[in-house]
Amino acid sequence: MQGNRRRDTKPEKLLRSALHERGLRFRVDHPIRPQPGARPIRADVVFTRARVAVFVDGCFWHSCPDHGTRPARNSEYWTAKLERNLARDRRYDKLLAEAGWTVVRIWEHQDPLEAAGQIEDLLQESTTSLAT
Ligand SMILES: [Zn+2]
Known about the structure:
Layout: H1 10-21, E1 27-32, E2 41-47, E3 52-57, H2 75-98, E4 102-107, H3 112-131
Parallel strand pairs: 3-4
Antiparallel strand pairs: 1-2, 2-3
């Protein structure tokens, strides 16, 4: 299913530049190993120190509640494929959370500036909690 993941999509680029403008530093398309020896999970934007993994989810591939559609043609095929994507998303969320990561999922339709603001808030919270 990695074949679905297109690198450097427009929403990803917009989010990354919004994060850069806020002076945040991060890794792009960075693999995270939830357990030693486990298969790495690639997140779109990764803050390694704060352990925050950001995924930019496409509305179609990740079945956005507002824009997700199921093609009428080959509907069985598509339903199965999109269900598998959802199951994989939830599995990754769980594996990462168990490994102490905070997972942020941003829809491609979300305003990148707002999303960057949410991420910055989250990073500030996590550094505050580390400091105290
Ligand atoms: Zn959407």
